[in-house]
Amino acid sequence: MNTAPGPQMILVAGPYRSGTGDDPAALDANVRAMSRTALALFRAGHLGITGEALALPLLEEAGCERPGDAVFDEIFHPMAEQLLSRCDAVLRIPGASEGADRMVAQARAEGKHVYHSLDDVPAVR
After folding, report:
1. Does the predicted TM-score (pTM) go above 0.85?
2. Which phi and psi angles does 73 have, rounded to 5°?
């Protein structure tokens, strides 16, 4: 990571469902990949966050039965979109994902930083 002053709140955007066939183990692996990235951001002095960390508990509480059902569609991407509006930047991690690509497009439209690697993010620690 490059060094620059100022911590940022950075949304980690990557695949959640893409290529998983909605297999629970594959979904969990994708969440863990985003969480590892958020942890690295935290250790570099930023607040790394994932939409999944906020949306998944709400989906369970709201009675979501499977990824892609009506409850999922009501909460999952809209939560990430609202969250991104509060963030300073997005870090797009590898892997095909229409949703993550939408987060990048939204970030650019809102004039936010878009990073494609942890090495691109200025470290503050």
Report:
1. yes
2. -65, -30
